[in-house]
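Input record, target 12 of the design panel.
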């Protein structure tokens, strides 16, 4: 079992819409520090399955660490989504679920900077966490573009209205309802958000909405390094199961000597130059943090203290993070004979 996995009881189940529920978790005092989180992060939940034992799914935290007593995730039912349907049909008060500690890089750099938040459907989940945090614990202004099918599918409608009433000068909400305006398109989105493109942008929603919104932002001249995106995808590996990472075939004479700091311990090991760092650590039985193994979640972020490395793929780290030596273990290959890595994030 992953050492970052813990059993939590469901404290409350809130029916947000006809097809979305919020699970509020009760975190015992001894786990409070481990479940500290930043707005925009997610929890990975183990859902039982008769077919394969269990499946793992990532659900964004809709609560804010700055105003909500307990962490909460919001799950929207999807037509063919086994896990979302199981949760919506079975999760109840006092249900016990196995959950990984908070993770994710879809996090605001500062609560005092103005932000443009763009969401569609259940993409509002991490976005509402960021909005509440900026408004209640920071000084930044918030513009929220939120697209839905119809008024009945607007998740957190009450929370959004309450925030707008409490912060009329700092929160500007732009609702888009498909039943009235059709699907969001690049030109219309650009018109709506053009007054807010000098801000940091956080984007979360289905692929079609994300594509149109990104096109609008690019047309308006928003630099890539000011846009954070969060994408939902199925996990290829189940982090609740024992890893079965196998070393790729490699020339042992081409291995790098890696010094790795992890959980207060220092390890020295051979790192074949064609194998991602995370694969090496898991094969050696080391409990490195990971969820997706696809670069999207940012959970396996670590620091390159010395030596040279390169990443095969990067969907989580910004340029300034790369410049200070951050990398993703699941995508990182060595390029020098010795490398020093620290999991200190």
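The sequence produced for target 12 reads:
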């Amino acid at each position: 079992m992953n050492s970052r996995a813990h059993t939590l009881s469901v404290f409350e189940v809130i029916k947000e819409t006809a097809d979305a529920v919020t699970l509020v978790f009760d975190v015992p005092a001894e786990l409070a520090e481990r479940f500290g989180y930043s707005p925009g992060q997610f929890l990975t939940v183990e859902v039982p399955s008769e077919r394969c034992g269990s499946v793992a799914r990532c659900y964004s935290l809709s609560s804010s660490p700055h105003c909500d007593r307990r962490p909460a995730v919001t799950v929207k039912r999807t037509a063919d989504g086994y896990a979302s349907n199981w949760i919506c049909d079975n999760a109840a008060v006092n249900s016990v679920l196995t959950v990984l500690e908070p993770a994710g890089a879809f996090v605001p750099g500062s609560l005092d900077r103005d932000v443009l938040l763009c969401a569609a459907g259940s993409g509002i989940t991490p976005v509402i966490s960021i909005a509440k945090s900026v408004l209640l614990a920071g000084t930044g202004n918030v513009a929220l573009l939120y697209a839905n099918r119809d008024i009945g599918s607007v998740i957190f409608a009450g929370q959004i209205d309450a925030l707008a009433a409490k912060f009329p000068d700092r929160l500007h909400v732009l609702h888009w309802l498909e039943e009235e305006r059709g699907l969001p398109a690049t030109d219309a989105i650009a018109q709506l958000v053009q007054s807010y493109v000098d801000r940091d942008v956080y984007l979360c929603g289905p692929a079609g909405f994300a594509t149109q919104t990104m096109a609008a932002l690019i047309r308006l001249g928003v630099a890539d390094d000011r846009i954070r995106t969060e994408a939902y995808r199925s996990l290829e590996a189940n982090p609740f199961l024992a890893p079965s990472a196998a070393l790729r075939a490699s020339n042992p004479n081409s291995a790098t000597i890696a010094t790795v700091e992890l959980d207060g311990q220092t390890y020295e090991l051979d790192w074949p130059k064609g194998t991602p760092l995370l694969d090496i650590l898991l094969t050696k039985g080391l409990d490195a943090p990971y969820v997706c193994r696809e670069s999207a979640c940012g959970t396996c972020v670590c620091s390159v203290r010395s030596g040279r490395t390169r990443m095969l793929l990067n969907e989580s780290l910004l340029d300034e993070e790369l410049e200070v030596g951050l990398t993703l273990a699941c995508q990182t290959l060595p390029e020098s004979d010795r490398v020093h890595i620290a999991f200190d994030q």
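The two ends are 22 Å apart (CA to CA).
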